[in-house]
Design goal:
The chain is α/β, with parallel strands linked by helices. It contains 13 helices and ten strands. The chain starts with 13 loop residues before the first helix and ends with a helix. Ligand PBG binds at residues 124, 126, 128, 136, 172-173, 208, 211-212, 226, 282-283. The site of ligand PBG has 12 residues, from helix 7. Homooctamer.
């Protein structure tokens, strides 16, 4: 180079980035295995394992197969799994199967708790896997989801899961007032230690598409949407209002969903309320990343870890992610 530099920066941000040790010293956020929650899809029957075509690498498993996944979580130190029933045979208009004590989910809870005493077990509370129409609640003649009647069923479902031993229940239905109603019912039934993680700010999002294929509700839902109860992606003040209500009604933890497109909402919620706050990196986000990874367009390991670190930076205390096992392995390799 035959020209001398003429400008001297007054601040050199690159000094700290020069070496790995100083980069480590100034690292503001960390992603650990303890931040990860694994959602799993469970099937009736035994010895069944099925791929989900829009979620490469994700499997729907009968309970006996799921135990291997639980074992892997325990080995890796993943603290919590979240159970979603898939392809239930007993769907109905009033979702009676949602509170059948011998149903798939309560059975899974009991068996996992008996075999894996150190693994946290969380369940989804909503009616969409159980209704013939694929909506999260009980509908009237026009197909409108009726709020207060739905809550009665959600209470039964919550008690059924708590009775079976769920550590955490997670209402994902977005009915008004359900957190308070469920909390009160749990208290009355002596389940005062059953934790509630509320899907407080759950948006009416296209990113749930692959999930609906995975649980087998897509066909039932058809062209219908969930806009009369899930939130408008245009809003974020409304998310704060939702979270405020859920905290007041007794939620122990709040969740924002989807994740990556809603990092701004996570940050606002964390700054405003400073309560345990979680993000759900949903099925469509997984599908997007996997599609690019499989095409060789994105580096697999780095895109998984960077996408998850973004949640920590945004203020999340933990992340529900279909990458939990892969991410845990990567984190362990780095350590
Ligand atoms: C159902 C429920 C959904 C998800 C979690 N619980 C789908 C929906 O609301 O239609 C989505 C999860 C994902 O996309 O990974 N109440």
């Amino acid at each position: 180079m035959n020209f001398p530099p003429r400008y001297t920066p007054s601040t050199r941000m690159r000094r700290m980035r020069r070496d790995a040790f100083s980069r480590h010293l100034m690292q503001e956020n960390t992603l650990t295995v303890k931040d990860l929650i694994l959602p799993v899809f469970i099937l009736e029957g035994s010895n069944v394992e099925q791929d989900v075509s829009s979620m490469p690498g994700v499997k729907r498993q009968s309970l006996d197969k799921l135990f291997d996944t639980c074992e892997e979580c325990v080995q890796l130190g993943i603290p919590l799994i979240d159970l979603f029933p898939a392809d239930l045979s007993n769907k109905s208009l009033y979702a009676e199967e949602a509170y059948n004590p011998d149903g798939l989910v309560p059975t899974a809870i009991r068996e996992i708790r008996a075999r894996f005493p150190d693994l946290g077990v969380m369940t989804d509370v909503a009616l969409d896997p159980y209704t013939t129409h694929g909506q999260d609640g009980i509908i009237d003649a026009d197909g409108y989801v009726m709020n207060d009647i739905t809550i009665e069923v959600l209470i039964k479902q919550s008690l059924c899961h708590a009775d079976a031993g769920a550590h955490i229940i997670s209402p994902s239905d977005m009915m008004d007032g359900r957190i308070g109603a469920i909390r009160e019912a749990l208290e009355d039934a002596g389940h005062e230690l059953t934790r509630i993680i509320s899907y407080s700010a759950k948006y009416a999002s296209c990113f749930y598409g692959p999930f609906r294929e995975a649980v087998g509700s897509a066909g039932n839902l058809g062209k219908a949407d969930k806009k009369t109860y899930q939130m408008d992606p245009a809003n974020s003040n409304e998310a704060l209002h939702e979270v405020a209500l859920d905290i007041q009604e007794g939620a122990d933890m709040v969740m924002i969903k989807p994740g990556m497109p809603y990092l701004d909402v996570i940050r606002r919620v964390k700054d405003e309320f400073a309560v345990p706050t979680y993000a759900y990196q949903v099925s469509g986000e997984y599908a997007m990343l996997m599609a690019a990874i499989q095409n060789g367009w994105l580096d697999r390991d780095q895109s998984i870890l960077e996408s998850l670190m973004a949640f920590k930076r945004a203020g999340a205390d933990g992340v529900l992610t279909y990458f939990a096992i892969e991410a845990a392995k990567l984190i362990r390799q780095q350590a």
